[in-house]
Amino acid sequence: MHRMKIQFCFIFVTFLTSFTSIPLTHATSRYYRTLAGGHRQGGSTKFNEQPLAEIAIYEAVLALHEDASVKASPNVLGLKGEDTEWVTIQVDHPEPSPDDWVAVFSPAQFNGSTCSYEDYTRIQPPYICSSPIKFMNVSYENPDYVNTGKSLLRLQIINQRSDFSFALFSGGYSKPELKAVSNTITFANPKAPLYPRLALGKSWDEMTVTWSSGYNIDEAVPFVEWAMKGHHQAQSRSPAGTLTFTQNDMCGGAARGVGWRDPGFIHTAFLKNLWPNMVYMYRMGHMLQNGEYVWSKTYSFKASPYPGQDSLQRVIIFGDMGKGERDGSNAYSNKHPGAINTTDTLIKDLENYDIVLHIGDMSYANGYISQWDQFLAQMEPISSKVPYMVASGNHERDWPNSGSFYDVDDSGGECGVPAETLFYVPAENRAKFWYSMDYGMFHFCVADTEHDWRIGTEQYAFIEKCLASANRHKQPWLIFVAHRVLGYSSNEWYGLEGSFEEPMGREHLQHLWQKYKVDIAFFGHVHNYERVCPIYQNQCVNNEKSHYSGTVNGTIHIVAGGGGSHLSDFSELDTVWSIYKDHDFGFVKLTAFNQSSLLMEYKKSSDGEVYDSFTITREYKDVLACVHDGCEPVTLAA
Ligand SMILES: *[C@@H]1O[C@H](CO)[C@@H](O)[C@H](O)[C@H]1NC(C)=O
Ligand SMILES: *[C@@H]1O[C@H](CO)[C@@H](O)[C@H](O)[C@H]1NC(C)=O
Ligand SMILES: *[C@@H]1O[C@H](CO)[C@@H](O)[C@H](O)[C@H]1NC(C)=O
Ligand SMILES: *[C@@H]1O[C@H](CO)[C@@H](O)[C@H](O)[C@H]1NC(C)=O
Ligand SMILES: *[C@@H]1O[C@H](CO)[C@@H](O)[C@H](O)[C@H]1NC(C)=O
Ligand SMILES: [Fe+2]
């Protein structure tokens, strides 16, 4: 018995079907209920953040209705190279109910195709062991469906390296009864190279391009072809490395069970020796064994400024975005209501910023791996054009007994693997998600709050080294970034804890921020916007609110976690250090005009307008000047 465990579960299905006397334990719902249930976070109950977790797919039973049908069209998508298409789903059901819903499965052959031995202790025909990749209420666009039994749905499908089928279920999401399955549809080239994301390399003159495809290295050679704009004849090719991850790499939960989906192959090419500020054109390619090429679309980016270069430099910062659905699917419990607005507002403004920092909690896939491709597709207009630098959040990394600093299940079992593979970051080790980054007059230190940062740890040593390595004459703007709030936030649950931060955050780090005169510390995790005075040890060190100048004394703390996921409430307690609070979706833009002038703006996602701002104006001597806990030693000798 045991030896059949992993191989060919499909044979096992047949085996079980033909011996119906073998008792199949009736699906216990404990597994997904655990995932779906709200869980506690610092004293308050958090919403479940993955709509797919509401579906009790193991409970699905076979109840095919011979007169029910689902038809999907067109049959072939992406004939002109598109990676996103709208499909029409025609539902006919003689016994319609408000509880009817359509599931999108990919691969199309969803029954038994990904079952493992353990699954058979709980599932029943039709043996569905993987979650749909999205779903929609049949009445959503046509309330009349419950009378007519007919509905036309419009769904947006992206190329995810496999074919698709659409299944009609009755019984709602908790007792799904399979009524009918559609024809299979597919993209013309399911393996196409897609969803490029740019990231800075370890050196300022290097840009990395990471993308996803269905081509393993034994089938095709991946590379990026690129040239300075207007210098097509000087085109070059850079080879790409290839990575992937498997179900066994997941730590548990949905990621190792119903949420698992093959991520394909993830390629990264390193474009080196870039000329500062020049625009480059690029496209991804795969050279097949027969010598033919498969190409992506052509994209462009602007190379980074030389570190210290005095020129206009603009940075976008936000956290906690999530994924939106333009077709309204998954809508009955849309957990990330601001994601589309933030994305669209940033796309419209693409010409007016140079680099993006997404400071953790990216897709909220939470173990449903299909959601990562959908998130990458959502961000592609941005991530293919400007470096998209990411930090790790609880929804990327946390899982009990997996080495995450917080022993909670927020990653749905991913334990960091998808995020660390799908995105390149210039870290020594992407599983230790901390790194430094130079961008012109900015020096960024990106921390990883899902690993210990306290005094004495490897990460603490990194943070100190990173902060110390900014030459403030060349890089006056020193920025600290982390996912969870290690500084100050008036968020409700932090208020209940009484600390207004993660325990052991500023207690361990504020000395470093002060010593190295960090200008601004940005945090996410709390889904709102808040700006704090320049502060040190709970005391505002400056009464000014909008035009800071002179000596750098204290660090300004900003929470920018309103990228799109459901909003967080503020505490009713009045926090003296708080200058501006906004319970809405938004993001931050930093503009360095030159070595002595910086502008911070907070914009709402809904209209892109500025709702809060301040400037910092100062000279080099103002950074050097001695302040409490921020003085260089001086000898009495002359
Ligand atoms: C679909 O929407 C209708 C109308 O809003 C609602 O009554 C029904 O419960 C929904 N069905 C499911 C399966 O969520
Ligand atoms: C799985 O689905 C295929 C086609 O959709 C069907 O031919 C086959 O009988 C199904 N197998 C089981 C075990 O339900
Ligand atoms: C810095 O802030 C501290 C604490 O408020 C204050 O005592 C000190 O005078 C300030 N130093 C300067 C140079 O502004
Ligand atoms: C820096 O930029 C600001 C804002 O544009 C401008 O007012 C100021 O004159 C500039 N300073 C220098 C030294 O160029
Ligand atoms: C998205 O933006 C539109 C247009 O400004 C606005 O009406 C809507 O309320 C925004 N949605 C959310 C969830 O903020
Ligand atoms: Fe978070």
TrEMBL record:
MF terms in GO: acid phosphatase activity; metal ion binding
This enzyme's EC code(s): 3.1.3.2
Pfam family, one: Pur_ac_phosph_N
Catalysed reactions, as listed in the record: a phosphate monoester + H2O = an alcohol + phosphate
Secretion signal, residue range per the UniProt entry: 1-27
Xref: InterPro entries: Calcineurin-like_PHP, Fn3_PAP, Metallo-depent_PP-like, MPP_PAP, PAPs_C, PAPs_N, Purple_acid_Pase-like_N
Domain of life from the UniProt record: Eukaryota
Calcineurin-like phosphoesterase domain span: 314-529
Residue ranges of domain Purple acid phosphatase N-terminal in the record: 195-302
Similarity field: Belongs to the metallophosphoesterase superfamily. Purple acid phosphatase family.
Name this polypeptide is given: Purple acid phosphatase
Organism: Helianthus annuus
